[in-house]
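Exercise 7. Predict the joint structure of the components listed below.
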Amino acid sequence: MLRFALTRILMSVPTLLIVSVSVFALIRLIPGDPASLMLGDLATPASIADLQARLGLDQSLPVQFGIWFGNLLKGDLGQSINSQQAVLPLILQRFWISAQIVLVAVALASLVAVPAGVLAAWKQDSALDLSLVAAATLLLSIPTFWLGLLLLLFFGLRLEWLPVVGYVSIAENPWAGLLYLVMPIMTLFLHEIGVILRMARASTLEVLRLDYITHARAKGLSEGAVLWNHAFKNAFGPTWTLIGLVLGNLLGGIAVVETVFTIPGLGRLLVDSIFARDYPVIQGCMLFVAFTYVLVNLVIDLCYPLFDPRVTAQ
Amino acid sequence: MNRRLTCAFALLALASPATAQTINVALNADIRSTNPGVNRDDNTDAVVLHMVEGLVGYRENGAVAPLLAEKVAVSSDGLTYTFTLRQGVKFHNGAELTSADVLWNWTRYMDPKTDWRCRSEFDGRIGMKVTGVTAPDPSTVVMRLEKPSALFLDTMARTDCAMVAIIHKDSLKPDGSFDKPIGTGPFMLGDWRRGEFVSLKRFDAYVSPPGDKRDGYVGRKNALVPEIKFLAIADGATVKAGLISGALHVADIPDSDLPEMQKSNSVQVVTAPSATKHALLFQSRDPLLSDVRMRQAIAAALDLDELVAQASNELGKVNNSAVHMASPYYGEVQRQRYDHDPARVKKLLAEAGYKGQTIKLIANKRATVPSFPVAVVAQAMLQAAGINSEIEVLEWATQLDRYSKGNYQMMSFSYSARIDPAQSYNQFSGAKDTYPSKAWDSRRADELIEKATITADEAERQKLFDELHKLMLADAPLIFLYNQVDTAMVSKRLRGFAPWVASKPRLWEVGLAD
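Solution:
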């Protein structure tokens, strides 16, 4: 297993290299630069050139890339042009905030959606199945920003149960911190239920049609035993993969939810940095997101043998 | 059930960002730093200027008045400025302000390593040059200029220069890098959580400038609440929810949200004209728009009253002048404007040989400026007059890049507030070969602006600004539409808050009712 993990991590190196080169190049292809933005409408060509020189942006792109990549190999992602903070601690600090929302939301969504999906498949074409599929489709179709605003209006403004703006860290005040996280978690939870439920239902349906399920039923096994021991374990693979993809996606990009609920997470950091053309932060964030994606999917792959003995981590 | 509800509300109280005596202000983005005049933007200036003060500052109407200085004496040749400091002013660390502090700050600001935004304004690179600063005694500072300048005090008071804030030496770390602002303002830095909020605490030993009421950045400046908190909230809908729920006490909102918010029982709208200018720029080097008749035709095609009413939700008033409407230099001549005249449009288009070419009009969709609504209404009016135009919506950084390079035909753009008319004209006038961002390339205009920067006599300056306005209307390098009307939504619990010409919130002399 260790060898498998190491091989997968090594295989991700070319991916991360491609990400770093393409992000570095693409962000510089977009018009606008940090010096102009910092100086505003009174900037002169000379003042822009001065500031660019101070920020090291006057050097050729290969030289800039070389410096950045050299530092990267030493574990230094540089310093934010905007806030002048070191990029890596900044990303880690923001990532932790996003991660606690995403991990809880996806875990809760999986706990609800997977059994619901299996149930819907088991009762295919019944009223229960149709209701679950309709609910899943509806939740999947609602944009997260709109869902977030609805929750904000209902729980924040109408019922006044939850705080509308601001953020308190759980480490600082667990109870207060939890209240600030309820609505963002609920938004993602509701949205991801739709995604996971549909996959769980589809893969269970596929398995339920196979001969060995008919054989199990013919042996006189109870429906519960057929579903849990024979159908679910085989049907869970694709859903598990999807959960991994969802996690990877969300860990790098819940900017919309973070913006609606004023959560200072990684997504907002990335979006703000793009608007401010804060190159070191953009590059650092993108690289970190890519690395997280690879790592999450590696963990997902390593977990397969736990529920499907046909798969080995070799 | 009741017990559960009580528990829930107890938790809410714990979680609330607002304690009873904290004023919460929404900012559309986090501040960039707490270093006065260095790595800054409008939000940064607004927050930092609660903690620091300069020798002089703006009054409510934009005139300059002493702040840390008690009085300012100007020599008859206009070259020497003598600042007498107020007695008993204390820094946040308890140290008393002396002329040595001013001297130390000036040396720091003029050091290129500090990266002060306004160094070039005082070192002769763009005109004005301070040749020497001395401190003959602990309460006197003397500054000497190379040439007389009518803009010296105004530049010293500029908010983007952080009012040449006087901070204590201990604001720097032992290695010389900036640590935190130890200023003389009514509030001092509490906590800055990047991406979340910056909180300021009341400075109990604050010595207010004289005055019986608040007056811009001068006048009475006592902090009435123990804490103010500026929260970074990017989403407009969240800001509105925060205001209605009472979690926020002050927020700027786009004009378009005004009717909806006016229905709320918990907030009120306060407005004030500012010196920010909204304009339609022409690229006079464009083959089509290089013909002044074409630019005049566009100006005559616009029903400016209707355009401004639509774009500002009927708050703004047409002002085709670079002089803001609250300025003492805004007179009869500055009221002269372009008239909507369809017959003249036809005549000018025919004379210019217009053959229906499409003009690209660049705009952005930032909520803080009316760039896009202005473009949409202008496009419809141009279309009605037989002028084809197409709107190109750009993200702000991209538009600013195009503006800086002069790479546009027409652009819906907003200029930040400049109080003095000469500085306002300087924003858009100059040689395009050297400064591609300048909209107006006229030698005569540059001469007049240059004169206005060195002439102190108000009547003489008025004549210069009058001539400049007439020249600009004739040349039509751009069309100023109106001055921004700052619209703030304010909690009904808040007492004493008012927006003003500098477009920056001020939270001193502001309290919260129980």
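Discussion. Chain A is about 75% helix and 0% strand.
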